[in-house]
Amino acid sequence: MKTLVGFAILFLVAGCNKTPSNQQTSIEGRVDSLISLMTLEEKIGQLNLPSAGAFVTGSVESSDIAKKIEQGKVGGLFNIKTVANIREMQKIAIDKSRLKIPLIFGMDVIHGYESVFPIPLGLSCSWDMKLIERSARIAAIEASADGINWTFSPMVDISRDPRWGRISEGSGEDPYLGSQIAKAMVIGFQGNDLSANNTIMSCVKHYALYGASEAGRDYNTTDMSRHRMYNEYFPPYQAAVDAGVGSVMASFNEIDGIPATANKWLLTDVLRTQWGFKGFLVSDYTGISEMINHGIGDLQTVSALALDAGLDMDMVSEGLLNTLGNSVKEGKVTEQQITEACRRILEAKFKLGLFDNPYKYCDDNRATSEVFTAANRAEARSTAAQSFVLLKNNNVLPLKRSGTIALVGPLADAKENMTGTWSVAARFSESISVLEGLKKSVGSNAKIVYAKGSNLTEDEVLEKNSTLFGKSLHRDTRTAAQLRDEALRIAKSADVIVAAVGEAAEMSGEAASRTNIEIPETQKELIKALLKTGKPVVLVLFTGRPLALAWEEENVPAILNVWFGGSEAGDAIADVVFGDVNPSGKLSTTFPQNVGQVPIYYAHKNTGRPLRGPWFQKFQSNYLDVSNEPLYPFGYGLSYTTFSYSEVKLSSAIISSADSLVVSVDVTNTGSREGKEVVQLYIRDVVGSITRPVKELKAFEKITLKSGETKTVNFTLGKKDLSFYNADLNFVAEPGEFHVFVGGNSRDVKQGSFVLK
Ligand code: BGC
Predict the structure, then answer these.
(1) Radius of gyration of the chain from its Cα atoms, rounded to whole angstroms
(2) Per the confidence metrics, is the pTM higher than 0.90?
């Protein structure tokens, strides 16, 4: 056996010199020959993904990881970083396990690594695919320089429920925008050569429908029609598959009464058969053992169900590791099924080049020279500025660098909170706070005076749970009145007040759902007191979700939504506040007037009793106490300049499905400074065999216009853009009338129409 193993390893290494064209065939051959040497136990071992335990999002099930690696019972590890730590673990696999199969090393590299970019929801508001791709590219360069070769990103779950904390981790409510971003992220992480040492394998998650959990409560049940899945929730996952994503993570929720982790229709029929996914499928954290709680069987049963459904790798549960042997003996699964799962994981390791050099991501020089570099931080800063959304501005912003500026609020001097949720590699102490950013930016031209003004909330327990993982807001023990008084004292001397308020970093993200989506009361009291001074107040709003801001919209003169902008956010905020950068972010998710309107999204159906004319009308689809309108619609965001749109021009009033239609609009910068505008195109299929949304985004373009400049934007619509999944789940473009809308958000649009023959 020893000689055989030696021969196989030689063959495997030699095979790495193949040209890319025959690489796939050569990988298959090498995987076959390796599999022929593996025992059943070793194959099962490859399916096991324990957490190394550095950062955990649940319990740690595996003990004695080193011993297990030696015994060939581990296929990869996650929650581990640094070249030294990763090399140490890889060395055990290579030096001590019988077949010397390298481990894959995963991590949640979600929005940057040490150079942290805006949270994904913020990033999506840039509507700039090159920028988003670049952020993933930099994240991959930094993570791979630190030993990591696999990221659990992008998270592409469509969500229309701001109560759900994880809305912060995705790209908002829209399937088209979400799909473009999914593709950009996968390409950013994986590049065009996965075996290069600075690209990493991407894992699209959470497949599927995780963002539709009932009542916005995390891990909760989902239930939806097939046509809604296909038309509204599936597209971003499929876009990631089309972009060549190497792996997919199953979601925690159930679908049609079967948890996604064991849902054969979802994992095999849709993902592999219909979409042609060729990579490997990993469970989410304890996703397998959680199926015991879902109530579909004991550990052995659920593990067998997961494998049978098409799942390949078990994150943390050790259900596959500990039960598949027996399940083979008892005829519940076949060895062939285990071989197939193992094959897919080995293929991924070959693609990453780990058989060529297991230490290829363990380069000490790269770790010191390519992480948290000045250049990467500069990109994080400019990207952050592109993610901010100016929600309101009554001629207050941009501020002048002169006089005295009072900076108040619990998020003003909050380094640890700048990076937001899922920033496991961030260097908190080096993040730029708003206070630092503003001070640096004004230099000696203006005076910045600071007071905290309030804690995050009066509820100490809520504050503790919202500032986990070292993201403390350093709770002040003074009373709310004392804190407010201090803020009012410093505000007295100021010309303008900047209030850095909103949510703490861990108030969104995993297991961070809220039923009240307003700014916490004590901060509102602070804002009210500040407004009473009669001085202009600017809200610099931190949030990981759409908040209900009806009162703020009515009372505060300027609101700049900065999400969580990343390690350089403080500088980026100063860039926008002082007008060095003109804000251009547009919302990727609707902001409701209040939580009772949730779920609220622009691409809703018309209903049989749509509200026509003014609200309120009896026996029409509306509320007694609040109109149907959102506070800020999807696609909305202001600039320091203004834009006007011409009427829409169509290349033809009638087209056939073989034609394409060109939709043109002239956009003019009618303000006094250069700015960027996201020009958005929506359609409505007026009559369908199944009901269609009142508007659907189908194209967009971000343009830059100088003051007074006009540009013609041309969009080409083809059959695919007019198609949808019908009742039989066939993707069809049905003849009939279509409306087309173009504008700077989903509400304020110019309209045209055409007929598809
Ligand atoms: C989360 C995933 C994450 C995984 C590993 C889970 O709790 O749902 O998004 O990738 O942990 O950290």
Answers:
(1) 27
(2) yes
